[in-house]
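Lecture 7 notes: from sequence to structure.

We start with a single chain of 165 residues. Read the sequence below before looking at the structure.
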Amino acid sequence: MFSQSSKGSEAPGQAVRETRATPRSSGETSVISADLKIIGDLVCSGDVQIKGVVDGNVKSQSVTIGEGAQVTGAISADAVHISGTIKGQVEAPTVTVAKTAKVNGDIFHQTLSIEAGAYMEGNCRRLEAKQPAKKPIDTASLASLKPTTSSAVIAETGKKAVGGR
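Now the structure, written as tokens:
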């Protein structure tokens, strides 16, 4: 009986030690627990679930800010779900703001969902689909364009168009 209870209490401690010792696979979700405060930027190739406090920028595949969690900084991901508090910019193709969320900052998105009751202060702007880089303007082709009538009059007379002087 005594040995069974000691095995039960050691098993959770051993699991924590093993998790820390073994490297994370890309399929695992990284969790910032409710009693953890991180000061600094987070960069993760997988998913991040924040239940505590992060004072810094977060860049990840997917970010979930849990109810009661707080992030002060920019978030950049493919998908962001906000149930807690964020003070900073959010940039992701898919953003979901839950009714318990409090957002102070701009949201850049392709798809945005805001539940009734959510607090939102900032701008929401749609991200354009990634397009190939634009070619620089050819100044030689601009010079060949004919000026409009009003600009031709101004160029020839040297007088302002407004007021006719």
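Residues 2 and 8 are 10 Å apart (CA to CA). Keep this in mind for problem set 3.
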